[in-house]
Amino acid sequence: MTDPIVERISELRKKHNAIILAHNYQRGEIQDVADFVGDSLGLSQQAAKTDADLIVFCGVHFMAETAAMLCPDKTVIMPDENAGCPMAAMITARELREKKKLYPDVTVVCYVNSTAAVKAESDICCTSANATKIVASIPKDREILFVPDKSLGAYVASCLNRKMIFWDGYCPSHHRILSEHVVQLKSEHPDAKIVVHPECTPDVIALADHVASTTGIIKYPGSNHTKEFIVGTEIGILHRLRQTYPDKTFLPATPLSDCPNMKLNTLEKVMWSLEDLQFVVTVPEEIAVKARKTIQQMLDLS
Ligand code: 13P
Ligand code: SF4
Fold first, then answer.
1. 141 part of a folded domain
2. Who has the most CB within 10 Å: 52, 60, 80, 286?
């Protein structure tokens, strides 16, 4: 028997010609009703190409904002308006403008985990899936300021052997993963492969067999015969890993790495958002016009 909430969501989705987009960290039951589950890049690409009239964005605020800017003729709603990203809140547009005064010729690369206003003050955007490619596309003689994630920035800098200036931002959920957690698990499971997100600290990344975006992490077990994986990212990803590879074992580096903001969305709230058509996410046009350019440049390069 189908869950009545799931049934109601299906009815409302049809009625409003809606699409449900869910990030890989969403609760399992939300991922299961979504039309598309993915990483930040995949979700932006889906938003950009959908012909739905309404996008129900199950993720955090900056993701819904990005969708709203890419689809100005569509309505974008979030099931919980309080689902923000603490890392995105670690930099404001005013702080970035002040920093740029100190480095007048700098090229600003902003991680998609940032507000629309910060994107509007930046030159180009990136996600964890394409950050290395985006930075590599910038001429070598240009100085780069990477905001707001210092961990992703340091990872990209080490891949490209390139100096960059970093903002002092970070993801609290990924920084709860300690190298001790990974070392301990690896000693108990010596054959396990270690796969981590680049928002982890450099000492955790140094232990990894593979570093990737959330969708990259989901693809990785498909490309090798290993049966066990130590997973260094937000624990919501385990749902899809276990669903996709039922014969493999996935061990969270630590059960502490959960993102309370991602988990604010629930199946009931998805239904209510479709009933009430809220909470609508909009971006003032004077900001959107500038921020859209930085996102579009990234999409063109991806
Ligand atoms: P992805 O783009 O890899 O899905 O990451 C988004 C995010 O918020 C990670 O914490
Ligand atoms: Fe932000 Fe970290 Fe949550 Fe991702 S996991 S949304 S970076 S706080």
1. yes
2. 60
